[in-house]
């Protein structure tokens, strides 16, 4: 016997503990360690016998929105699966009991509060209290889906940027030539003045779309300087106030800070504010109030634009900001997208919340710009 082994035995004897007692303690320690690993696993762990839940870990309680385990224990696992998928799960459990492999499969779980969770379930045979059981591992796919959606939006933004550069390059020069010749024709044919005004108006609209596309195609921020947001907001309000009064809309700025200065591109930020205020006004065709709140902390300045409209319908809320998506008959589908990109190029972020009482757009701009 080695000196090390003899030393351990001597130590156990000094402590009045036999080797078998030490083995038992080691087993208890390992069992507790395994219990903790399972209990606090990032995936839900459920053990069932004859489809009835015998065990669920803490993660599973949170996934199913349960306050305690008794709400889930001794219930059939099928009770938590969407009715359209129960037969499929029954077949998989039957195959598993017959020794076949059950690969991960997507399911829709019905939580205790009625909400749904998109998950992936994998089952393996096990023993529980010395009886055959099924060990089910449930992985929540919600974060994975969010990541996929962000990747898709990023890809759309990339495609839109490439389109923007190509369209602006191919169209801008011909438009300039058309405008010049139109002005020459207008002076020669004064009796058709109304027609020329319509054509000129439509050309100006094309130029507006091109300018938005160019803003999308040029993501880098330039002309960075210290800007007083109180002055900038007041300038924008003055610019839009006449139109607001005609539409029976009150624009009400509230400044919860004395200076509110940030490092930014003044013209770009002004463009963002104009876009959000115009959207707020268009959301209230019968009139109302647009609140603009500005406040500042040690790190960021927050600007909120709140309207009193009917809010954004739930079915399209997720598409707000997608390139070329718009609900307006004369919209380009680029305003919010370009605004978001401008703020992101300032290392800030835009958050949109909406309900039946109106919509709030919150813009955060860091006090110090870094890129």
From TrEMBL:
Record's keyword annotation contains Cell inner membrane: no
Keyword Mitochondrion tagged: no
Molecular-function GO terms, alphabetical: ATP binding
Domain annotation Histidine kinase: ranges: 166-369
A Pfam family matched in the record: HATPase_c
EC supergroup of this enzyme: transferase
CDD domains: HisKA, PAS
EC numbers for this chain: 2.7.13.3
Keywords: ATP-binding, Kinase, Nucleotide-binding, Phosphoprotein, Transferase, Two-component regulatory system
Superkingdom as given in the UniProt entry: Bacteria
Reactions catalysed: ATP + protein L-histidine = ADP + protein N-phospho-L-histidine
InterPro entries given in the database record: HATPase_C_sf, HATPase_dom, His_kinase_dom, HisK_dim/P_dom, HisK_dim/P_sf, PAS, PAS-like_dom_sf, PAS_fold
Name assigned to this protein: histidine kinase
Protein's organism: Rossellomorea oryzaecorticis
């Amino acid at each position: 016997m080695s000196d090390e082994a003899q030393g351990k035995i001597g130590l156990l004897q000094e402590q009045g503990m036999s080797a078998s007692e030490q083995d038992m303690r080691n087993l208890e320690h390992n069992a507790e360690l395994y219990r903790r690993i399972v209990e606090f696993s990032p995936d839900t762990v459920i053990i069932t016998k004859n489809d009835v839940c015998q065990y669920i870990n803490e993660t599973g309680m949170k996934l199913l929105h349960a306050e305690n385990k008794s709400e889930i224990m001794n219930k059939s696992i099928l009770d938590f699966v969407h009715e359209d998928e129960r037969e499929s799960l029954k077949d998989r459990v039957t195959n598993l009991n017959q020794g076949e492999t059950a690969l991960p499969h997507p399911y829709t779980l019905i939580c205790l509060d009625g909400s749904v969770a998109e998950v992936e379930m994998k089952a393996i045979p096990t023993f529980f209290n010395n009886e055959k059981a099924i060990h089910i591992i449930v992985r929540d796919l919600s974060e994975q889906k969010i990541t996929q959606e962000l990747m898709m939006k990023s890809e759309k933004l990339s495609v839109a940027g490439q389109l923007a550069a190509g369209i602006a390059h191919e169209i801008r020069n011909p438009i300039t030539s058309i405008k010049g010749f139109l002005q020459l024709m207008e002076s020669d044919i004064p009796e058709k003045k109304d027609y020329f005004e319509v054509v000129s108006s439509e050309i100006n609209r094309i130029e507006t779309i091109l300018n938005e596309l160019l803003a999308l195609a040029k993501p880098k921020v330039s002309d960075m300087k210290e800007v007083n947001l109180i002055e900038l907001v007041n300038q924008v309000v003055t610019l839009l106030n006449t139109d607001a009064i005609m539409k029976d809309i009150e624009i009400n700025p509230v400044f919860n800070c004395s200076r509110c200065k940030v490092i930014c591109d003044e013209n770009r930020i002004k463009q963002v504010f104009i876009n959000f205020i115009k959207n707020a006004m268009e959301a209230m065709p019968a009139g109302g109030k647009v609140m603009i709140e500005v406040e500042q902390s040690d790190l960021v300045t927050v600007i909120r634009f709140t309207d009193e409209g009917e809010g954004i319908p739930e079915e399209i809320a997720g598409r707000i900001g997608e390139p070329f998506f718009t609900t307006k008959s004369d919209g380009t589908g680029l305003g919010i997208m370009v605004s978001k990109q401008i703020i992101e190029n300032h290392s800030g972020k835009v958050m949109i919340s909406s309900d039946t009482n109106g919509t709030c757009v919150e813009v955060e701009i860091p006090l110090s710009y870094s890129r």
